[in-house]
Amino acid sequence: MTLRNLIASGQKATVATVARRLGVSPQAASEMVGRLRSESLVEQGDSRELALSTSGRTMADAIFRRHALVEWLLTDVVGMGWAESDREAQRLQSAISENVESRLEEFLGHPEICPHGNPIDAASAKRRPPGVPLSTLASGDHATIYRITEEAEEDAGLLSYLEARGLRPGAEIVVQASSESLDAITLTGPRGAATLGLRPASLILVLPGKADAALFHRLPAG
Prior knowledge:
By secondary structure, the chain is α+β, with helices and mostly antiparallel strands. The chain has 3 domains: 2-52, Winged helix-like DNA-binding domain superfamily/Winged helix DNA-binding domain (Arc Repressor Mutant, subunit A), CATH 1.10.10.10; 63-127, Orthogonal Bundle (Arc Repressor Mutant, subunit A), CATH 1.10.10.10; 132-215, Ferrous iron transport protein A (FeoA) (SH3 type barrels), CATH 2.30.30. The chain has 10 helices and 8 strands. The strands form 2 sheets. Strands 3-8-4-5-6-7 form a 6-stranded antiparallel sheet. A two-stranded antiparallel ribbon has the order 1-2. Strand 5 and strand 6 form a beta hairpin. Helix 2 packs across helix 3 (26-38) and helix 4 (54-78) packs across helix 5 (82-92).
């Protein structure tokens, strides 16, 4: 999942970046990558950059799909917050059988994205527009929150702040100010003003103007 998230966030995936993301030593990360390579799940090129093999991507997508389905259930049905539901989904995703996964997907209306807007698999990603980082917008720009990227999902504090300010996929925003010298961007959204550092803002993707509502999954009524 870590390697999938790095690649999905557009970052260069190496043993070093995997080690930093997991908070382990480079040696430990190298051993983990070695095991994945021995199982033909990960490939490493001459530049030492890592990539998921076809079978590795299929496996990673399957794990992420179960995680996303559990998150939809916990957030929109049970009523848990984003950060809490992410932690619980980590615990529950491996316990879901294929039968339960299929029933859950049908119950949730066959979502193509997770609650944070990230594509549930490679096929879904190809059908969706890329979006642009929130950090690139200028004062006065209007946009729609599109994706809280996989890297942003790993920051529980950021998730909680975005949720509290109503900055979820589909939310319309207006940028009030953006300053590199102050390392901050201020915007207005559904719940008033919000301020983010430019680094966290770079992990949030938006679509200019008012986006097509069909891009944002909502659970079936009833």
